[in-house]
């Protein structure tokens, strides 16, 4: 019994050794290299590029106050529409002390002048009634009185505007009321009630009370590399896609190409703008990130092969063409434009030729599993 058991163990050891030897032998043998076979065919090839940019309104206006003051009321919110001339906010005036002092001084001087002119007028009128002066001299006295009264009214009105932001004679055009200068959508109101605001002057741009834009007139803004800008022309069609809107694609027309480059990340970029045509069923928000696809060049019915079949040696391009004996011959070819997958072949091979493609990588995982099972 012991002898039978001994033979069984020896048999198992021999089987393992033989199996290991066979496995290692198969692995040591050179594997036959197989390649994909690709056929040269005629097709349409278009060279395209994608420009990254954003969607913005063509006209975006910052509404600023005409005087310094404090926001007393805000009548609109971001997202609401507004008509040209419609009131967005109201100010409480903070008068400039120098201007206020000058206006008050002007009123006092005009009062003094008016009293003196009135005294002269009364005297001249009495003399005229007694026919001691001519009508011409009396008319001059009347004219001086009218001018003095007009100056007094103008001085008082200027004081009211500086002090209150509005005059009693022109209350409908009060500078305390901040009105929209265009019709459109309010994109932002960056101020709150109680905030101080200042008017634009030579030293600063002034405080923006609201930003208004016409969202019916949109443009795409982006940048294109100098290597591709030479193929662009005005009115060139583009396809716009917006990442925030799934499956959204709209048409656009190129209308501006910058004449000057701007350096960005070590390369020269040119700004471009395109008018966007958007269906009313979509709500487009200012600043949406977008991509514009431009067809730079297109050829119809040209001989082409997949780019993966090309090999480059010393700045020359070759393909391996299958011969009648099933061997591959290294052949020099001249290439043209590419769409990133297929490339135009100008010379070197003919339609229907079979060329060698990338290596076929076999799945060795399954083979290893089979050997393990055996």
Explain the overall architecture:
The protein has about 375 residues and is of the alpha+beta class. The protein folds into 3 domains: about 35-45 and about 300-360, conserved putative lor/sdh protein from methanococcus maripaludis s2 fold (Beta Barrel); about 50-60 and about 215-300, Elongation Factor Tu (Ef-tu), domain 3, CATH 2.40.30.170; about 65-210, Beta Barrel (OB fold (Dihydrolipoamide Acetyltransferase, E2P)), CATH 2.40.50. It is about 30% helix and about 40% strand. The chain contains 5 helices and 22 strands. It has helices spanning about 1-30, 95-130, 135-165, 225-230, 365-374, and strands at about 35-40, 40-55, 60-65, 70-75, 80, 85-95, 175-180, 185-190, 195, 210-215, 220-225, 235-240, 250-255, 260-265, 265-275, 290-305, 310-315, 315-320, 330, 335-340, 340-345, 355-360. The strands form 5 sheets. The protein has a 6-stranded antiparallel beta barrel with strand order 2-11-15-13-12-16. Helix 2 (about 95-130) runs antiparallel to helix 3 (about 135-165). The longest helix is centred in the first third of the chain and has 33 residues, at about 95-130. The chain is elongated and about 160 Å long. The model is unreliable at about 365-374 (pLDDT under 50).
